[in-house]
Amino acid sequence: METKLKNASQATGVEESALNELFIDELKDIYWAEKHLISALPKMAKAATSEELRTAIENHLAETENHVSRLEEAFASIGEKAVAKKCEAMAGLIKEGTEIIADTEKGSFTRDAGIISAAQKVEHYEIASYGTLKTFATVLGYTEAADLLEATLQEEKNADNLLSQIAESSINQKGIHESK
Questions:
Q1: What is the rounded distance in angstroms from the CA atom of residue 64 to the CA atom of residue 72?
Q2: Measuring CA to CA, which of 22, 66, 136, 142 is 20 to 30 A from 101?
Q3: CATH 3.40.980.20 matches 17-168
Q4: What's the pLDDT band for 16 if we cut at 50, 70, 90?
């Protein structure tokens, strides 16, 4: 199937298109982002006060490792080598998360609220990226890549929803009662 799809893409000139080039460039960008999240998530988990938040972050770390593998599969499915290109947006989001941890009191629910805020910014960036990449893959005829990207998109949406539930069920309310 892979060869058939690739030949169909070659016949229509998809591989020579500017959209295909953008798609590959954006794949490289999110690949870098996911690989760097693998380093950042354990620091966020360690800084979390709530066991529920820590567990959610640790579980998402395992998913993120799978996201990297899926991206490698997506690259392979379109006949490209998996290469990372620095994602300035993710670098900035990771830096912001680090600053939030540094600027909040250890062991506080305010810190947890800040960690959730930083993590949701990351999730929203990933949701936007994977949604766009899935659409590009579909338009370009890369069915296998589109399916892989859709699977990750759904996991990112689930992670975002879980973070909202954790924040709304306890963390934010507990943070109200902490002094500066």
A1: 13
A2: 66
A3: no
A4: confident
Q: Report the pLDDT averaged over residues 141-164.
A: 98
Nearest to 126 by CA among 30, 25, 35, 29: 30
Question: What is the 3-state secondary structure of the chain?
Answer: CHHHHHHHHHHHCHHHCHHHHHHHHHHHHHHHHHHHHHHHHHHHHHHCCCHHHHHHHHHHHHHHHHHHHHHHHHHHHCCCCCCCCCCHHHHHHHHHHHHHHHHCCCCCHHHHHHHHHHHHHHHHHHHHHHHHHHHHHHHHCCHHHHHHHHHHHHHHHHHHHHHHHHHHHHHHHHHHCCCC
Q: What pLDDT is recorded for position 180?
A: 80
Alpha-carbon gap, residue 1 to 145, rounded angstroms: 12
Q: Distance of CA 120 to CAs 57, 71, 116, Å? A: 11, 21, 6
Cβ atoms of 48 and 58 closer than 8 Å: no
Q: Of 179 and 91, which is predicted with more confidence?
A: 91
Angle formed by the axes of helices 18-47 and 109-140, nearest 10°: 160
Domain boundaries, the chain: 17-168
Confidence category of residue 6, pLDDT binned at 50, 70, 90 = very low
